């Protein structure tokens, strides 16, 4: 581990799924000298088609008859049959975190509503029998959200987090993208990875 940057290469490689060396940008030759063979053009087009066909066939074979007991060497994810595993840094749909009893952790302080640059959050607060504030209504307009994560960052209760949900973020009808408190509530367990991540990252960079 590099002590200066606190950078754990092995951990990061585990998270990304490939050796980091393979992700290094390749040198770009801006003014290549073409050979006569390349100038003829057609052979290179045929070679390109050959490469594309080879990848297509190997992907198809890997999908239809995956090698038993062996890790697949191709990178293609067969979505939607397979889902992408996203790193905890990914910012998907903002969701509300529920307590163990299923009620929201949110105390309706209004900070997320205030900070949201897209004015996507609307809260109506009430007090319960013990005089504690809670969001009687919490509405998030997904058609306005820009996934900046400010709401998560400003929340003093870890009550709203950017989840890894990336499906169903766009609808043909914008009215279906307006989420109520009930639609946004998720168990703490389901967003555990993100909660651990924000504890690390915000503690490191902000305070
Ligand atoms: S992620 Fe950004 S735009 Fe979306 S609700 Fe939160 S603060 Fe607003
Ligand atoms: S900042 Fe957190 S606690 Fe405050 S209203 Fe928003 S979600 Fe609720």
Any chance you could write out the topology, listing elements then pairs?
Elements: H1 9-16, H2 36-39, H3 42-64, E1 94-98, H4 111-115, E2 121-127, E3 133-141, H5 150-154, E4 160-162, E5 178-179, H6 181-184, E6 185-187, H7 192-205
Parallel strand pairs: 1-6
Antiparallel strand pairs: 1-4, 2-3, 3-5
The protein binds iron/sulfur cluster (2 copies).
Could you walk me through the main structural features you see in this protein, from its secondary elements to its overall organization?
- The chain folds into 2 domains: about 80 residues, no CATH class; about 110 residues, Alpha-Beta Plaits (2-Layer Sandwich).
- Helices cover about 30% and strands about 15% of the residues.
- The chain has 7 helices and 6 strands; from the N terminus they run αααβαββαββαβα.
- The protein has a 3-stranded mixed beta sheet.
- The longest helix has 23 residues.
- The protein is elongated, with a radius of gyration of 24 Å.
- The structure holds iron/sulfur cluster (2 copies).
- The site of one iron/sulfur cluster has 15 residues, from helix 5.
């Amino acid at each position: 581990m590099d002590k200066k940057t606190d950078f754990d290469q092995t951990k990061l490689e585990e998270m990304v799924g490939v050796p980091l060396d393979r992700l290094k940008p390749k040198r770009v030759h801006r003014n290549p000298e073409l050979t006569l063979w390349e100038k003829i053009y057609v052979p290179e087009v045929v070679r390109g088609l050959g490469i594309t066909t080879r990848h297509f066939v190997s992907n198809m074979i890997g999908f239809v008859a995956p090698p038993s007991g062996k890790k697949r060497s191709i990178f293609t994810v067969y979505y939607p049959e397979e889902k992408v595993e996203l790193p905890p840094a990914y910012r998907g749909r903002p969701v509300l975190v529920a307590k163990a009893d299923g009620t929201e952790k949110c105390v309706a302080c209004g900070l997320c509503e205030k900070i949201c640059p897209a004015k996507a959050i609307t809260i109506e607060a009430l007090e319960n029998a013990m005089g504690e504030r809670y969001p009687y209504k919490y509405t998030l307009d997904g058609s306005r959200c820009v996934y900046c994560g400010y709401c998560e960052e400003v929340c003093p209760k870890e009550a709203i987090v950017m989840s890894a949900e990336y499906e169903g973020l766009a609808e043909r009808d914008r009215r279906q993208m307006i989420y109520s408190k009930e639609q946004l509530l998720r168990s703490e367990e389901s967003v555990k990875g993100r909660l651990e991540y924000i504890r690390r990252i915000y503690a490191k960079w902000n305070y």
